[in-house]
Amino acid sequence: MDFGILTVPALALSALLGYSVFFDSSSVLFRDITVPDVVAEDGFTPHVMASRLASEVRGISRAARTAKEQQKVGLTDDETAVKVVADQFEFLKPIKATQEVMGLVTFIFSGEMVKLEKDYEFAVRGEDRKAGRTISISARGARPEELIRPVAIDLVRFIDPYIVASYYYETTRDSGSKDYSNTLRELRNCMIVMPKDERYWAVNLQGLVFLQQGKPDDAIMKFNEARTMRPDFVLPVYNIGVAMAAKGKHEDAIAKYKEVLTIDAEKRSRYPHAYTQWGVSLAATGRPEEALTMFQRAEQADSNYADLYNAWGKFLRDQNKIVEAREMFQKAIDRAPERAEFRENLKVALSAPVR
């Protein structure tokens, strides 16, 4: 892949600047973390600590699976820049490194690891150059590596509090738990600190929590509120459809999925979701052939959408097509191995008799 004359100077600049993570158009720079010799001797050098922290921030953003633009992240340093540019160009453009030198970095973090009498303290300071905000946080523990996650969570919350709320929602859903207390705590924070013109994201997520808790009416109220706050916001339209289906109102749900296809005609980001749930509602109302067509359309729209294959597997299982159902559940797991529901569905299908 040829990036032209900017490639060499950009990579050279990135080698000088440490580790960077990119949230949409806002780049986040991590300076090397100062560490005592006893920590460096265990392999946690200043570069390693900065890299681990940057990677953790990126991992939290990815696990959040938010449609909000800030989910775009990338990582570069003097050892991995060439690989990242060559293999993962979608996460990083070399010009970003030049922007850092030009003073276009939005967030800058630095810090130190200190050896105390019985444990360690990891302290990080940060600056939001655009908003003029600063942060100073610390965590204590017996081992340096166990301090990286809590500090990273605090940093992501500083960068964009919604990402932390979405992270807790997604990881709770992945585990199969119904305890969304962490998500709700973060959402309360979002409604205080997020800009007012972005809070519709948090309101929509509140609706999703209600939906997961088996409260579709409360969920619909939140989805309608989010839509009022942002009339062109497609997610609550789709989510209202799912809530309607949860109430057994499948024709109303299908009407919402059709609306999603109209609203999202340009980006088509919700097409696989709408087609999948449309298929679920068709199957629930005794129209299996039409349901199959919708699942096929969803696959054409996005063959990496894990929930499609889980729904398709349940559809086949209900038709006693156990072998085919197993294949679909496995496809779902291949795409989202962290989802407990998918693993359980495959386990049940594997133990079911084949007729």
Write up this protein.
The structure is a single chain. With 355 residues, the chain is of the alpha+beta class. Among the domains are: 4-159, Rossmann fold; 160-233, Alpha Horseshoe (Serine Threonine Protein Phosphatase 5, Tetratricopeptide repeat), CATH 1.25.40. The protein has 17 helices and five strands. It has a five-stranded mixed beta sheet, covered by helices on one side. Helix 11 (235-246) packs antiparallel against helix 12.
Spell out the key features of this protein.
disordered N terminus, Rossmann fold, 355 residues, Tetratricopeptide repeat protein, 12% strand, Ycf3, TPR repeat, five-stranded mixed sheet, Serine Threonine Protein Phosphatase 5, Tetratricopeptide repeat, repeat, alpha+beta
